[in-house]
Every structure is written in C-alpha cells, then in structure tokens.
C-alpha cells in the first residue's frame, strides 16, 4: 500500500521500560525502533502513544500485597494482569525510546492515567467505558485507516487494533515493526492468540516492505 491522506501510523508504547533492560522488557523490543522510524517518513499522519501510570497504579503487582508480577487480580471491572512497576509518569522509564523519532507526530496520546483503571488500548480504557478521545481526534482529521506498530503485540497493540476496528477504522498491523511479551499458555502463547484475535476481527497484516 501507499499511505495517503486518510491513513495514520499509530506508534504504540515505544518506551524505555519496554525495551531490553527496562522494567517490563519486551523481548527484542528495541528491534522495532529502526523500522518504525522508516515507516514514519511514509505517512502524512503519525500519532504516538505512551503508557503513563501514576505511582501505585492498580496494574502494578506492588499495589496488591502478596501478589507477584504476571499473576492475575480480580477487579470490580474485570481481571487485571499484574506487572512490574513500569512507565511511571515523568520517570526515565516512561520516556520514548531515545532512538525513536518523535518530531513527526501531531498527536501523543497518554493512557493508563487513572489510578484504579488500566488501559492497554489507546482508544478505550480497561473499564471499557472511558474513552481517551483518540477516535474523535482521528475522525476530525479525516483518518479512515489506522496502521499500527510498536509494543507489545499481545497487549497494547492488540487492544488498540481491536478498538480501532470497533470504532470503525480500517486497521492493519505491521508485523515486522511490532514485538510481543508472549505469556506462555496451553493455547500456544499470547502472541499467537493475539494474531488470531486480530485476524478474526478483520484486522490485516503487512510488512514494512509492503509500504511503498
Ligand atoms: C503494556 C503491559 C502493561 C503494553 C503496557 O504496552 O503492551 N503491556 N502495560
Ligand atoms: Zn502499563
């Protein structure tokens, strides 16, 4: 595809804490930076997202005495995976990856700011009710197709892609510009499960080389 005036590149959570050495490292997370920088030059519209939690956020295992990262907690609005403390507002770990180009983006959308609600999705928070405003902002700019890249395939990319589709956009994911956490499961891991869910939702896949 050749990106046009109604296409937007959505760069999800390419932040220090999700890179190797960070608080919640995504394996090979740093490998997405170079392809994403290349992709950004091909799009007229670029938006960046930032996971942006207050200290003591509900998604942190440390906020649940006796619980460990990667366990699941039951909250009033549903199950919550517990993580190491990560992307705390204003800390070095919450900053964009130093090598990520950020100057082309018209929009930076931050998510996960409410102490008691997580938000993997750039569109709709974990209570599945609170909207971030991103869908409206994209519509006002005339965007019809959202092309996603970034971290992590099986969490924030997955939920952002599903909600973009739900909001009525055409959605594509750039498979060599994403990387996943990949929690093992009997069903073959969360990355394979994420691709299956996205495919079932009508979300397309492409490679950086397919973008001319
Ligand atoms: C993410 C887990 C917790 C992500 C954010 O960006 O995929 N994953 N917070
Ligand atoms: Zn988070």
UniProtKB/TrEMBL annotation:
<comment type="pathway">
    <text>Cofactor biosynthesis; nicotinate biosynthesis; nicotinate from nicotinamide: step 1/1.</text>
</comment>
<dbReference type="GO" id="GO:0008936">
    <property type="term" value="F:nicotinamidase activity"/>
</dbReference>
<keyword id="KW-0662">Pyridine nucleotide biosynthesis</keyword>
<keyword id="KW-0378">Hydrolase</keyword>
<dbReference type="Pfam" id="PF00857">
    <property type="entry name" value="Isochorismatase"/>
</dbReference>
<keyword id="KW-0479">Metal-binding</keyword>
<comment type="similarity">
    <text>Belongs to the isochorismatase family.</text>
</comment>
<dbReference type="InterPro" id="IPR000868">
    <property type="entry name" value="Isochorismatase-like_dom"/>
</dbReference>
<dbReference type="InterPro" id="IPR036380">
    <property type="entry name" value="Isochorismatase-like_sf"/>
</dbReference>
<protein>
    <recommendedName>
        <fullName>nicotinamidase</fullName>
        <ecNumber>3.5.1.19</ecNumber>
    </recommendedName>
</protein>
<dbReference type="InterPro" id="IPR052347">
    <property type="entry name" value="Isochorismatase_Nicotinamidase"/>
</dbReference>
<feature type="domain" description="Isochorismatase-like">
    <location>
        <begin position="8"/>
        <end position="201"/>
    </location>
</feature>
């Amino acid at each position: 595809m050749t990106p046009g005036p109604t296409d937007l590149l959505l760069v999800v959570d390419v932040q220090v804490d999700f890179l190797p050495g960070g608080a919640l490292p995504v394996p090979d997370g740093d490998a997405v930076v170079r392809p994403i920088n290349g992709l950004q030059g091909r799009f007229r519209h670029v938006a960046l997202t930032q996971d942006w939690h207050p200290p003591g956020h509900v998604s942190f295992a440390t906020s649940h005495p006796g619980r460990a990262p990667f366990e699941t907690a039951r909250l009033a609005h549903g199950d919550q995976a517990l993580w190491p403390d990560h992307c705390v507002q204003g800390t070095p770990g919450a900053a964009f990856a130093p090598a990520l180009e950020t100057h082309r983006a018209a929009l930076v959308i931050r998510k996960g700011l409410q102490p008691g609600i997580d938000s993997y999705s750039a569109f709709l928070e974990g209570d599945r009710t609170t909207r971030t405003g991103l869908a409206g902002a994209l519509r006002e700019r005339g965007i019809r197709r959202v092309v996603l890249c970034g971290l992590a395939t099986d969490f924030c990319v997955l939920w952002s892609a599903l909600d973009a589709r739900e909001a009525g956009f055409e959605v594509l994911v750039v498979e060599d510009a994403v990387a996943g956490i990949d929690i093992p499961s009997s069903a073959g891991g969360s990355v394979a499960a994420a691709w299956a869910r996205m495919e079932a939702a009508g979300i397309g896949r492409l490679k950086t080389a397919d973008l001319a």
